[in-house]
Batch of 3 targets.
Target 1
Amino acid sequence: MPLQNRVRPDGEIVSSPARGILMGNRGGKLHDPETRTLVRTQSSRQWITCVLQFKARQRQVMGKGYTELFFMDEVTALAAGHRPCFECRRKDALLFRSAWQSSKTLTAPPSAPDMDRELSAERRMNGGAKITWTGRAGTLPDGAMVRIDDNILAIRDRKFLPWTASGYRAGIPLDLNLDVEVLTPPTIARILHAGYQPIWHPSIRDAGD
């Protein structure tokens, strides 16, 4: 039975046998190390995404330390409200911060705690429900994720790409005038508009054709 450590675009943490291309955490321990089961969904506002390998470090998943979470790709992680890690993904984190500063016309780069505080307010309501918003499909950037009925789709090259735990399915032409429920937090959508390029799952090569 797979561990409950896979993050969906809607922020839910589920069990899945599919492998993702990024890991991350939500600021600390979310699990009981004895049973290796989830007991909470976040430990702090610091929701980050990391590479799978860094400086030959090795960890027991859901051991005594923080809870390792896994993502199909960065587009998925951004939709859930995670940002790049400043240690293992420093180059990406600096690009993300620069796009944040540009998108909000700030006079100085934001600090990590400042970004975490703002993203936290855009991720979940007090009761834990995912915060979504309505956007016109044709105005959303590549890398934004939306939900239509029970389907989660990513936007790329004027297409909707159906999301699954193991990759993207073949694209569907985008209805530019369709109002959709957007999963990607508004601030991250603006960062994507400002030019930040997220890491896509390799399945994109076939799904985008």
Target 2
Amino acid sequence: MSQYDVEHSPRMHVVRDGPREAPPLLLIHGSGASGGSWSPVVPALAGHHHVVRVDLPGCGQSPPARSYDVPDQAGRVAALLDDLGLRGVAAVGHSSGGYIATALAEQRPDLVRSLALISTGPSLDALRPQPFLLRVLLGPPVGPLLWRRRSDAMIRSGIRATAARPVDVPDDLIAEVRGTTYRAFRMASRRNTAYITEQSVPDRLAALGVPVLVVFGAADPRWEPSSAHQYDAVPNARVELVPRVGHIPMLEAPEATGKLLLGFTAVGPPPVIPEA
């Protein structure tokens, strides 16, 4: 993996890896996380792609924003891609980052070549009962106080609570999650719900006509794993369930997740097999 090239934008913090001339691949994290959540899969991806990771507004090292509406966040990502001169990106979103990737393709189809959604709930009826800690963090008056007093151990426990197997949480992710503001986490969670209440993700994707990869952990505790098959109705969609994996495949099964992404984003047509 190449040395990190870190850039600061008025809109958001960016980390880029891999050759600049390689096909661009955009990684968008979920609510309350940061670009560091992708660290385990970046080395494999950067061998084939110009990998662009962002910290969404109010998360990690990015400044907060007035609006956390999904279309507004997608607009900021589009402006960033314009600044970097990137077109035809493979946009990958984890969890609610998949909503932003979808909204990016809705707004700017000129920017998005394909979409990969990892653990992205398709509709509100697929949501499972949320962990106790998450319910506490989303509600006053305890939430803001607990957020300010989070220890590294508490952050690690919160991340691991969404996994189905032991995970090694990268130190850079812990440091970046500490930079996420309570308002960004709470408001983004509300606006994500509004986005999928207005229209389900499969219905949105069906209107786009871009190739789609959907990856779900078969033991996801946050979204009903079988709901991944709601995406079967989307033309050009491929659905993959990863066994014994929860909500964070890139931390729980980075090798398998990287292979799925590389296979999906492979450049060029499939080989022609001559007839016998």
Target 3
Amino acid sequence: MSQSGSLNVTPARKTGRPSLERLVRIGFIPLLDMAVLVAAEEQGFARREGIHLQLVKDVSWSNIRDRLAFRQFDVAHMLSPMPVASQLGLGSNPYRCFTPFALGRGGNSITLSLELYREMRITADLDGSEDALANALALKAVIERRRREGKKPLVFAMTYPFSSHNYEFRFWLAAGGIDPDSDVIMTVVPPPLTVDAMAARAIDGFCVNAPWNMIAVEKGVGRIVATKADIWPSAPEKVLGVSPDWAEKNPETLSRLIVALDAAARWCDDPDNHGSLAEMLGAPTCVDASPDMILRLLKGELTVDPSGRTRSIENYLMFHGQAANFPWISQARWIYSQMVRWGQVAHNDACLPQVEAAYRPDIYRDVLATSATAVPLIDSKVEGVGSGPTVVPTTHADLVLDPHRFIDGRAFDANDIPAYVNGFAIRAR
């Protein structure tokens, strides 16, 4: 089946550097997972392909969506569910876009206010060493006690309704027996405003990408209780969102951009480059945060509590390894399953071609098939396998993917979405 829908994009293969650089305008939100984009420009990978990347900082995902639709951006740093939502016509101004390249994975965390966490410690007798699921169960105990006392529901923030943050926050809450639609209030706060919102007591917790979780901890207002690695390490995070109109007019530029981003992603994964990467990301034009803190996050060294408790997470941020840039159709389908689970859309098999049109492994494969990158030869796999590694055939040798289980222990078979969704005890009714 063609994944292009109404879009007909066949990027040209790399044939040598053009004599003139082509300007590509790209919008981004100040988060560490825009690393591949800044490295592509600052380290010369884009220039080597005849491209000048004009990076434009924005404050909210709705702005990113609208400015791509209004042709102010050619491509964009985008939440992994946004192309799926756009293809399904969900949300306001659902301009259809697609992704041929994922920008990596990891970096999300759930942070609760210090006041709420202290209440959890007292209620559930926590000592601070508990895992993510134990923290969710402790939160459930607090919610039940607050309900008995007639207190207002807790308010939790995510960055956008169609986001990994929303689905991961809900997944974690539900794993602890908390219904995000009836036990708490879920609201939207843009990433750069989450820490201030918590400090002002407007919200009791949030899920967002680095560095904002650790900034909340270091400002003494928050406590990290779960990370993406605890909920589903392989969850797609940010992607390159592409305007179909621009792609149709600029197939070779899109091809060259993917080549540049592939090289930049490999560079970002090299620990020897993390010092330089932290300096670039820390600049006011990018994330505008302490390079020292960014370096610790790139190493997976998190300060989770203002008291100084730390946690080390291998591959907390991954930019290239483990096929992190491949746009898996099975992951697009998992995103769709969460939209169905939480009542954002009703399941309909007729929608699946639209879901698949959002993720374009065919373009990724066409561009990089002859490169040094091991490109998967399949588009889908069972997600969340926790019992052992998954072996994927690639353009080189077989690729062994680490076992990455969901926090609830259930794997996702992309071929039976209704059974998967109906298997959740907590879901939209």
